[in-house]
Amino acid sequence: MAYQAFISYSHAADDALAPALQHGLQTLARPWNRRRALEVFRDQTGLAVSPGLWSSIQAALDESEHFVLLASPEAAASPWVDREIEHWLESHPLDRLLPVLTGGEWVWDPSRGDFDLERSTAVPPSLLGRFREEPRHLDLRWARTTETLDLRNSSFREAVAQLAAPMHGMTPEDLESVDVSHYRRVVRLRRAVVAVLSVLLLLVSVAGVVAVRNTREARHQQSLAEQNLRLAEQQTRRALALQLVAQAETLGEADRSLSLLLSLEASRLDPTEAWGSLVDRLAVLGGLERIGDLPSGVTTGDPAALDPDGVYVAAATGDGDIRLWQLSQLERKPVVLTRPQDLYPRVPDQLAFGHGGVLAARYSCPSTGVSCSDQRSKTRLAIWDTQTRRSRILPQSTDFEGPTFDGAGTAVAASSVNGKVRVWHVGSATVSRTLTPGGRPTAVA
């Protein structure tokens, strides 16, 4: 059978009670792994749009095990209810009809062995003369005035248990016990699921923490590997620079041009190791004479710097300006980088080149002659763009020395007497980092 129960009722009388009764029958003693405890047919939920209404109802009646009659004066007067009862009794036993009184009167006359026709207002005509003895019915007339009709209502729950018991093939008491057992099983299952989910959540959390730690460790190891790689590259460049310096010194007067080019390449690879050798090569081989006359009065001891890209060489003069030569055109007059007005009367005493033609200069107050107006800032740093000939004074660069560029020429660093090392971003001329290593740094690389 497709249904354990077929509910026949009058919509005018029991349009609210019938759905509640259907839901109660489907829910009471429902196993956790089933959608419903019983399959109950009710026209509002069991019928689809169809060209044959009565044939659909007949099919549902034929596929139902029990007939639940919601008896009321409205149902007794309904031709549809009477017709459903007649069709049911044609193919089903009478003991499978379960009457539920929802309104009116249901009176049995023992002397006649049938219903009292005058007093029974809720009995449909098709039931007259059908019973040999008084049928036991369920009185739910009180339910019409009750707002809460669900299994949480103890009276309604008891009524549903009495009605569902013959459908389950057990007594109402046993049915209640089965329902309690199912409920406890569901509670245990829920607790078990919650416990399992809690354990899984804990495992996922631990795995997440381990993954984060592993990621951090991997990043740390990657950072160390990159540092080692940069150190290895620096050592390789230094070793190659020293080798080129040695070759340049070996050549000496034998091949001036090649000796000078080797010193220039060594200075580009590692200015710290090879700059002195380049200056010596220029002095010994007469390279300095190729610069020509120095109208600005460049003298021995004035600071100079070589472009690591091999394009420019710069020298500072006592008048506060910087002279800039192209290495490929040393015979031409140099370009004059005029001291910024904000730095008057300071003069450049340290120069440093970075890749991309950027030049850093430290301007200091002269020891003799005009004194600086602000004694608290005797020394300032500025950067020059050799392409545009424009300068910018670096902020917070008071009393810093030894400007040094990074390998890409995008940052310049310098140290101060108070132990700080500051890094400026070349493009924006702003401070990007301030380091306090402890003690006074003597060199920055």
Please tell me about this protein's structure.
With 445 residues, the chain is an alpha+beta fold. It contains ten helices and 19 strands. It has a five-stranded parallel sheet, with helices on both faces. A hairpin with an 8-residue loop joins β10 and β11. α4 packs across α6, α7 packs across α8 and α9 packs antiparallel against α10. The chain is rod-shaped.
Strand content: 15-25%
Report the span from N to C terminus.
91 Å
Helix content: 25-40%
Largest sheet: 5 strands, parallel
Uncertain runs are: 286-296
Order of helices and strands: EHHEHHEHHEEEEHHHHEEEEEEEEEEEE
Task: Please tell me how large the radius of gyration is.
Answer: 52 Å
Chain-averaged pLDDT: 87
Shape: rod-shaped
β-strand number: 19
Q: In DSSP terms, counting alpha (H) and pi (I) runs of 4 or more, how many helices?
A: 10
Structural class: alpha+beta
The neighbouring-strand order within the major sheet is 2-1-3-4-7
How do you describe this structure in short?
The chain contains ten helices and 19 strands.
Provide keyphrases for this structure.
single chain, 445 residues, alpha+beta, five-stranded parallel beta sheet, four-stranded antiparallel beta sheet, 10 helices, rod-shaped
How is this fold's topology laid out?
Elements: E1 5-8, H1 11-14, H2 17-27, E2 40-41, H3 43-46, H4 53-62, E3 67-71, H5 73-76, H6 79-91, E4 97-101, E5 108-109, E6 114-115, E7 138-139, H7 154-168, H8 172-251, H9 256-269, H10 271-284, E8 304-306, E9 312-316, E10 322-326, E11 335-337, E12 347-354, E13 358-364, E14 379-385, E15 390-393, E16 400-405, E17 411-416, E18 421-425, E19 430-435
Parallel strand pairs: 1-2, 1-3, 3-4, 4-7
Antiparallel strand pairs: 5-6, 8-9, 9-10, 10-11, 12-13, 13-14, 14-15, 16-17, 17-18, 18-19
Helix pairs in contact: 4-6, 7-8, 8-9, 8-10, 9-10
